Amino acid sequence: MSERKQKLVAALAELGLGEQPQSLINGVLCDGAGVDIQLVDPFTEEVLLSYFDADAALANAACDAAQDAQKTWVREFSAAARGQVMQDISRAVLAHAEPLATIEAIVAGKPIRDCRIEVAKVAEMFAYYAGWADKLHGEVIPVPSGHLNYTQREPLGVVFQITPWNAPIFTAGWQIAPAIATGNGVVIKPSELTPITTVALVKIAESGGLPAGLVNVLCGLGPTTGQAAIAHAAVRKMVFVGSPETGRQVAIAAASALKPAVLELGGKSANIVFEDANLEHACLGAQAAIFSGAGQSCVAGSRLLLHRSIHERLIDMLSSGMNKIQLGDPLDDATEVGPISNARQFEHVRQMLIEANDEGADVLSRNAADGQGYFVPPTILKGLANTANAAQKEIFGPVVTAIPFDDEAEAIALANATDFGLAGAVWTADVSRAHRVAEAVRAGTFWINSYKAIHVSSPFGGSLSSGFGRSSGTDALMEYTSAKSVWLDSAPTPRIAFGYVS
Fold first, then answer.
1. What's the CA gap between 244 and 227, in Å, rounded?
2. At 314, is the secondary structure helix, strand, or coil?
């Protein structure tokens, strides 16, 4: 057994998990019965572990368990008590931060220093929504008929969530916390490539007082396990985080079952730099926007729109800076950028670079590590139009396309000339221009003189091929509840209108 696998097994044991990934159904770890799935270390390309697809049988059991536990959650726990459980979960996550971060770094290939930050943010998510658990107030509406009319926010019941491989534990916490804070049961299916930390998170939550079965984890494939869960009668809503292509399939399946969906999909976000910007700050922001996480982020600043007067200068600065970025072993505290998370995505990024070169791009890159692992070095593409494939398709790797513009109107037009609508940024010393651009660019999240600031208290989501719905802040509370309108007739005799009692 390799040293890395030994570290993985030790972290699993510390969290009460075995060497074979298992689904977590009604508080019990369960083996699947479908096809064999292998987990590969993206740094060494070694097969780490394998397990069997959960398939339809476990999916149905998970939905049944969530439906039963959800009733207990809302009937036997007051809203304040639910919030207290979530506070306890937050503390339990922090107490297990290091083994969680270790597993995430090995299986997903993320630098461990980033994984530690993400685990801390997951704890913060549970603490934030814990505070909202007993504050879901309705309202009294002064209807003209004289009735007492008030509204209540009610949980949906069971929600089914699918999360991606690029940020497994972060997206698990991001989805689970608001769902249970609003009184729902959850069935969650992490990517089949990175399922372990989601299982670990829910086990930790149960140790913190979460009722068994309220959150169930399915380790398996979308076409089998995922489709079975979507079709289950108990599931009232779908949440999907991933690629636009898969998101369309999920949306179609949900619509066929007459179930609403929240989709967090991809992006091709424009990072706009004007000539009056602080170029050192803009350069550091551009590096973080595209190279952190090896570019595997839906909000990555993958299109760098530069005023023509500073185009070459900022590219030179960015090129010099990327050569100083530390690539390497995700378990090394010094590593800033790790490998691409899996072989299929690695080949996709490489193919996109080949296509960009064929389209005439001037490719500025640096050497990768030593040929081991799924490494793509930080790369800048120059000389391409905004209509090029590399400027329109999501690469999801540490690759940025630099495009010049001449004035504010052109910058806005270029930023909006995409099928996506997720994020964007502007760098300028002109406050008025900053606000004009922020208003004009189509994006669910937009930054001024910064990039990638995200917090659980602020709404997040996009439009068009970036999806729809919002999954954080108070907006998420609305996504996971429905409004019930209650009418009380206080008149001494019934009010009759058009033959109906009003």
1. 17
2. helix
Cα 302–chain centre separation: 17
Averaged pLDDT for residues 337-363: 96
Token pair in block for residue 308: 């023509």
Which strands, in side-by-side order, build the sheet including 379-382? 362-365, 379-382, 399-405, 303-307, 270-273, 423-427, 445-448
Work out the percent of the chain whose per-residue pLDDT is above 90: 95
Distance CA(367)–CA(350), nearest Å, equals: 14
> What is the per-residue pLDDT for 370?
61
Burial 137-150 (b: 16+ CB within 10 A, else e): eeeeeeeeeebeee
Rg (CA), the chain: 24
The answer to whether the beta carbons of residues 181 and 159 sit under 8 Å apart is no
359 phi and psi, to 5 degrees?
A: -80, 0
Catalytic positions, written as ranges:
264, 298
Q: Residue 414's CB: how many other CB atoms inside 10 A?
A: 20
Which residues of 242-277 form beta strands (DSSP E)? 261-264, 270-273
The band of 366, judged by pLDDT with boundaries at 50, 70 and 90, is confident
Q: Which DSSP symbol is given to 211?
A: P
SS3 289: helix
Does residue 8 sit in helix, strand or coil? helix
49 conformational bin, left if phi > 0, alpha if psi -120 to 50, beta if neither:
beta
Instruction: State the pLDDT confidence band at 502, using cuts at 50, 70 and 90.
Output: very low
Position 496 confidence tier, pLDDT thresholds 50, 70, 90:
low
Q: Taking a C-beta distance cutoff of 8 angstroms, is the pair 205, 91 a contact?
A: no
DSSP string, 426-440: EE-S-HHHHHHHHHH
Q: Provide the token pair at 410.
A: 């052109």
Identify which of 24, 19, 70, 72 has the alpha carbon closest to the alpha carbon of residue 206: 24
- Give φ, ψ of 303 to 5 degrees: -115, 115
Tokens 């505070």, residue located: 131
State both tokens at 382. 């120059």
Distance CA 181, CA 162 (A): 18
Residue with tokens 């207290």: 84
Measured CA to CA, the distance from residue 318 to residue 279 in angstroms comes to 10
Place of tokens 């509204």: 151
**Could you identify the residue written with the tokens 């726990």?**
77
Residue type (1 letter), 337: V
| Side chain identity, residue 87 | Q
Name the DSSP class of 193.
Answer: T
CB atoms within 10 A of CB 13: 12
Tokens of 449: 């003189």
Supply the angle between the helices 79-95 and 196-207 in degrees, to the nearest 10: 120
Tokens of 207: 């140790």
